[in-house]
Amino acid sequence: MSFTPSATFRYTLMRLGIFVGSFLAIWALVYFRVLPSGLGDSNLFWVALLALVVSAPLSWVMLRRPREAMAVQVAEKVDRAKERLAANQSQEDGVV
Protein backbone atom coordinates (compact mmCIF):
# COMPACT_ATOMS: atom_id res chain seq x y z
CA MET A 1 0.00 0.00 0.00
CA SER A 2 1.63 3.24 -1.11
CA PHE A 3 0.93 6.65 0.32
CA THR A 4 0.15 9.31 -2.27
CA PRO A 5 -0.35 12.70 -0.66
CA SER A 6 -3.30 14.76 -1.74
CA ALA A 7 -2.84 17.80 -3.93
CA THR A 8 -3.76 20.03 -0.99
CA PHE A 9 -1.10 18.45 1.21
CA ARG A 10 1.56 18.78 -1.51
CA TYR A 11 0.63 22.41 -2.18
CA THR A 12 0.75 23.23 1.53
CA LEU A 13 4.18 21.63 1.92
CA MET A 14 5.52 23.47 -1.13
CA ARG A 15 4.11 26.76 0.12
CA LEU A 16 5.68 26.18 3.54
CA GLY A 17 8.97 25.31 1.87
CA ILE A 18 8.98 28.57 -0.09
CA PHE A 19 8.25 30.51 3.11
CA VAL A 20 11.04 28.75 5.03
CA GLY A 21 13.46 29.34 2.16
CA SER A 22 12.51 33.01 2.03
CA PHE A 23 12.83 33.27 5.80
CA LEU A 24 16.33 31.78 5.78
CA ALA A 25 17.46 33.94 2.86
CA ILE A 26 16.16 37.13 4.47
CA TRP A 27 17.58 36.14 7.85
CA ALA A 28 21.00 35.71 6.19
CA LEU A 29 20.69 39.12 4.50
CA VAL A 30 19.78 40.75 7.83
CA TYR A 31 22.58 38.87 9.62
CA PHE A 32 25.17 40.12 7.12
CA ARG A 33 23.62 43.60 7.32
CA VAL A 34 22.54 43.74 3.68
CA LEU A 35 19.02 44.47 4.91
CA PRO A 36 18.30 46.57 8.00
CA SER A 37 17.41 44.73 11.19
CA GLY A 38 14.30 45.46 13.24
CA LEU A 39 14.24 47.75 16.23
CA GLY A 40 15.27 46.22 19.54
CA ASP A 41 13.93 42.69 19.93
CA SER A 42 11.67 42.85 16.87
CA ASN A 43 14.27 41.36 14.50
CA LEU A 44 12.59 37.93 14.27
CA PHE A 45 9.21 39.55 13.60
CA TRP A 46 10.81 41.78 10.93
CA VAL A 47 12.39 38.79 9.18
CA ALA A 48 9.14 36.78 9.32
CA LEU A 49 7.14 39.70 7.93
CA LEU A 50 9.58 40.21 5.06
CA ALA A 51 9.61 36.48 4.36
CA LEU A 52 5.83 36.47 4.19
CA VAL A 53 5.81 39.44 1.80
CA VAL A 54 8.46 37.83 -0.42
CA SER A 55 7.08 34.28 -0.37
CA ALA A 56 3.50 35.23 -1.31
CA PRO A 57 4.20 36.42 -4.89
CA LEU A 58 6.81 33.67 -5.34
CA SER A 59 4.23 31.05 -4.40
CA TRP A 60 1.65 32.65 -6.66
CA VAL A 61 3.96 32.30 -9.67
CA MET A 62 5.87 29.12 -8.84
CA LEU A 63 2.97 27.00 -7.57
CA ARG A 64 0.41 27.64 -10.28
CA ARG A 65 0.08 24.02 -11.40
CA PRO A 66 -0.12 22.53 -7.89
CA ARG A 67 -2.72 25.17 -6.96
CA GLU A 68 -4.81 24.28 -10.02
CA ALA A 69 -4.54 20.56 -9.20
CA MET A 70 -5.65 21.32 -5.66
CA ALA A 71 -8.63 23.33 -6.95
CA VAL A 72 -9.71 20.44 -9.18
CA GLN A 73 -9.44 18.01 -6.28
CA VAL A 74 -11.48 20.24 -3.97
CA ALA A 75 -14.13 20.81 -6.67
CA GLU A 76 -14.47 17.04 -7.19
CA LYS A 77 -14.96 16.49 -3.47
CA VAL A 78 -17.58 19.23 -3.30
CA ASP A 79 -19.42 17.74 -6.28
CA ARG A 80 -19.43 14.27 -4.64
CA ALA A 81 -20.73 15.77 -1.40
CA LYS A 82 -23.51 17.58 -3.29
CA GLU A 83 -24.47 14.33 -5.03
CA ARG A 84 -24.62 12.46 -1.72
CA LEU A 85 -26.71 15.24 -0.19
CA ALA A 86 -29.11 15.20 -3.13
CA ALA A 87 -29.39 11.40 -2.90
CA ASN A 88 -30.10 11.57 0.82
CA GLN A 89 -32.73 14.27 0.31
CA SER A 90 -34.48 12.26 -2.40
CA GLN A 91 -34.62 9.23 -0.09
CA GLU A 92 -36.11 11.33 2.68
CA ASP A 93 -38.71 12.80 0.30
CA GLY A 94 -39.97 9.30 -0.54
CA VAL A 95 -40.84 8.57 3.10
CA VAL A 96 -44.17 9.97 4.21
From TrEMBL:
<dbReference type="InterPro" id="IPR036259">
    <property type="entry name" value="MFS_trans_sf"/>
</dbReference>
<keyword id="KW-0812">Transmembrane</keyword>
<feature type="transmembrane region" description="Helical">
    <location>
        <begin position="44"/>
        <end position="63"/>
    </location>
</feature>
<dbReference type="Pfam" id="PF14012">
    <property type="entry name" value="DUF4229"/>
</dbReference>
<protein>
    <recommendedName>
        <fullName>DUF4229 domain-containing protein</fullName>
    </recommendedName>
</protein>
<keyword id="KW-1133">Transmembrane helix</keyword>
<dbReference type="InterPro" id="IPR025323">
    <property type="entry name" value="DUF4229"/>
</dbReference>
<keyword id="KW-0472">Membrane</keyword>
<feature type="transmembrane region" description="Helical">
    <location>
        <begin position="12"/>
        <end position="32"/>
    </location>
</feature>
